[in-house]
Design a protein that fits this description.
mainly alpha, 13 helices, 73% helix, elongated
Length: 269
């Protein structure tokens, strides 16, 4: 008989796996299992970007392509992806756990505190990748083909997923700090202005001077540029590097706030 296994009443009873990765897998697995219960929260994340994708193509494609010679569908697809993945988190489920007392019960267990947040973020990362697939499929149906081929497509999804992960910290920070579902549900307002104060619909040279200044200070501008380069230009490593740096900067701030909020809530118990 080992420490991890005992025999009682003729049945094998296995002890709980210990360790960081076991805790991480447990938290992430539970978060993913709960996703089907909240499908209604994910529908807007797909419907709204697809709607604006179709509307903008119908309104601007002819003018845009006649003036730039760039495939407008390929130019616009990264905006749809960014809109889809920004702010998609399990933060609302975390608030439910906090209000229902489940989070407090977890704090009574030997689970590593850092995994209480990291596990949810792992689930978010997988969810973001899954949400990218139908939006990319729509682009392919409409004729978008990446200049970087299949490898570039994987890099494209990777950048989008990392951006989605970097954004998750803000809703989690609000969830852990306030425990208020209304505040968490309003967190999308943090991302909406930043998404469109960029080169979202037209190239940088078409912007007015004051708007161009704002766009250059906006990290989303560089993420859009990195994603567009993979679809329209090719392996533009400078644009890709700037996109990754922008994700890193936002991620450090966002996820840093989330873990600070986690420490604050743990200390209260």
């Amino acid at each position: 008989m080992t420490a991890a296994q005992a025999v009682t009443s003729g049945r094998n009873i296995r002890g709980r796996e210990a360790g960081f990765f076991a805790d991480l897998r447990s938290i992430a697995g539970r978060a993913l299992r709960l996703v089907p219960r909240d499908w209604e929260a994910l529908i807007p994340a797909l419907v709204i970007p697809v709607f604006f994708f179709a509307v903008n193509i119908g309104q601007l494609q002819k003018v845009f392509e006649s003036q730039t010679g760039i495939n407008y569908k390929a130019f616009l697809l990264p905006l749809s992806i960014i809109t889809t993945v920004s702010g998609v988190t399990r933060a609302s489920a975390l608030v439910t756990d906090i209000q229902g007392g489940y989070f407090d019960r977890l704090l009574l267990t030997p689970v590593r505190r850092i995994t209480l947040l990291l596990g949810l973020m792992v689930a978010d990362l997988l969810l973001v990748v899954a949400l990218c697939i139908p939006v990319l499929a729509l682009g392919f149906i409409l004729g978008v083909r990446p200049e970087t081929g299949v490898p570039g497509l994987f890099v494209f999804v990777g950048i989008a997923a990392l951006w989605g992960l970097a954004c998750t910290g803000f809703p989690y920070a609000l969830a852990l700090k306030t425990g208020n579902p209304a505040v968490v549900n309003s967190s999308f307002l943090l991302f909406f202005p930043f998404t469109f104060l960029t080169t979202a619909l037209v190239p940088e040279q078409a912007l007015t001077p004051w708007f161009r200044t704002i766009a250059k200070l906006n990290p989303v501008t560089y993420i859009l540029a990195g994603l567009r380069s993979l679809l329209v230009v090719g392996w533009a490593w400078g644009d890709i590097a700037q996109a990754l740096v922008a994700i890193l900067v936002v991620g450090v701030v966002s996820i840093g706030l989330a873990f600070a909020a986690l420490r604050g809530r743990v200390k209260k118990k």
